Amino acid sequence: MARLSEEKIEQIRSSVDIVDVIGSYIPLSKRGKGYWGICPFHDDSNPSMSVSQELQIYKCFVCGAGGNVFTFLQNYLKIGYLEAVKMVAEMGGIPVDELNEAYTRPKVNDQLKPLYDMHEEALKIYHVMLSRRTGLRAREYLEKRHITDEVIEKFMIGYAPNEDTLLKGFGQLNFNKVDMERSGLIIEGTRQDYDRFKDRIMFPLWDSNGQVVGFSGRIYQKDRDEAKYMNSPESEIFIKGQTLYHYHEAKQATRQAGFIYLLEGFMDVIALYRAGLENAVALMGTALTQDHLRLLRKLTVQVHVCLDGDRAGQEATLKNASILARNGFQVRVIRLKDGMDPDETLEQYGKEGLLKSLASHMSLLEFKINYYYETSQMDNYDERKAYLDHLAGDLASLEDPIDQSYYIGLVSNKSGFSTDIIHEKIANIGGSMRKKIHEVPIVSHTKQGPLPSKYQKAEQCLLHYMLLSKQVSSQYEKKLGYMYDATYRVIANYIVDYYRSHDTLQIADFINVLGQDSLISAVLEIAQLHLPSEVDGKEIQDYIQTISQHTFRLEIEDREKEMHQEMDPVRKAEILKEIIALKKKLNELKGVI
Question: In what residue span(s) does the Toprim domain sit (predicted)?
Answer without folding.
Answer: 258-339
